[in-house]
Amino acid sequence: MSARGTFIVIEGLDRSGKSTQAGIIHKKLAERFGDQRVKLIKFPDRTTPIGKMIDSYLRSQSDLDDQAIHLLFSANRWEVASSILSDLQNGITIVCDRYVYSGVAFSASKGLSFDWCVAPDVGLPSPDVVLFLDISPEAAKLRGGYGEERYEKEEMQRRVRENFKQLGKEQKTTKEESWVEIDAGKGLASVTEDVWTAVEKVMGQQAEDVQKLWMHRLKQS
Predict the structure, then answer these.
(1) What are phi and psi of 131, to 5 degrees?
(2) Which ranges of the chain would DSSP assign to H, the alpha helix?
(3) Which of 153, 168, 176 is nearest to 102 (CA)?
(4) Is the pLDDT of residue 6 over 50?
(5) pTM of the full predicted structure?
(6) Which sequence spans correspond to the domains of the chain?
(7) How far apart, in Å, do the first and last CA atoms of the chain sit?
(8) pLDDT tens-digit profile of 138-147?
């Protein structure tokens, strides 16, 4: 059993239920280990100076070049990378609502090079498990609040889903159980049960040292 915290990332299309599941899992883990041993974070972090620029962009209140906004999303993650690493090493489990995979999936769907989109995030703390909440864009569109932000368009979401699938295949080549696909089109209770099963399977089973994300890509370049 590892003494360090577990890094759990929840990913998916817009309106797939990520924030709901992240909140539920955080609460369950806090009940088990105590509030001080579990932390819930979310990307983008819209409270930082960089995050406020991203928030303005996502609400269509400002425009930025596709490359520029992608780098801002990455910088937003690097802003807290050291605190994520420190928390994990100090035994704090982190539940993260969106991470690098969203950044790549969304930017690549706009026509940017997949490899270029990945590059800025190489070396960030690597999750112990990614729970991908898979739902069709058609089903997501029927959920409340859809269309309020820039990327919530059905065709865009379809391309994003394909990119998530590609990322999942790559993730599994390094560690099969590090990417878990969950049917997010089912009822809330069923999805929560599937998510919790995946979380329980990985808790405490990670390596003692926090790995760095996508370092194998440096060897390929």
Answers:
(1) -100, 105
(2) 18-33, 49-58, 66-89, 100-108, 114-118, 137-141, 154-174, 188-202, 216-220
(3) 168
(4) yes
(5) 0.91
(6) 7-220
(7) 35
(8) 887 776 554 5
- Superfamily of domain 7-220 in CATH is P-loop containing nucleotide triphosphate hydrolases (3.40.50.300)
Structure tokens that stand for 155 in this block: 């065709």
Tokens coding 81:
């990378």
Q: What is the mean pLDDT of residues 71-79?
A: 96
- Neighbour tally for 147: CB within 10 Å: 11
User: Which pLDDT value is given to residue 1?
Assistant: 47
The neighbouring-strand residues paired with 134 are: 183
Is-cis flag, bond preceding 137, omega within 30? no
∠ CA 78-114-166, nearest 5°, is 100
Count the residues in the chain: 221
- Cβ atoms 98, 11 nearer than 8 A: yes
| CA–CA dist 182, 22 (Å, integer) | 14
